[in-house]
Amino acid sequence: MVMNTSMIQRISSLLHKDFTSIKGEPHNPTVILNHFNFTIETINRTNMMAHYCPNKYKIYLNQEKTPQTQRMILAHCLGHYILGHKYPDNFPEENAKTLLLGDYREIEANIFAHNFVMPEKEVRQYVRELKDVEEQARIFGVSQKIMIKRFKDLGFYLNI
Ligand SMILES: [Zn+2]
Asked: How far is residue 33's CA from residue 54's CA, in Å, rounded to a whole number?
């Protein structure tokens, strides 16, 4: 099933609501993946971001990536799970450039990840509080590059 952005945004915000009351860490993909019985193992010496194994409930995460990138890739994998994407085990998660050529599931998982890690409501609230890209990137635990993309996607003009 192909979903539009607002459906994915809604799913992400419902998940936040659930986990705010249950776990108190609504933005942390690891906590939520663990809640759904996923275990995260580490790999290195690969050019992949991760290998996603939905049937074994495992994610092999590339330890050589920055913590900020690891957070986004885990949120991306959580998106696959929450949005019901069927994949065989050991599915290689590549970088964003190759994703552009990928299928709708990869795009949906990215939309989910952005909404999940940097919820629109919170970004807008922080903008009202005059928190800039640098500060918001720190708050949400993402790279400045990803934060800039989020600002632009939400229609904020940035002179950079
Ligand atoms: Zn993916």
From this structure: 11
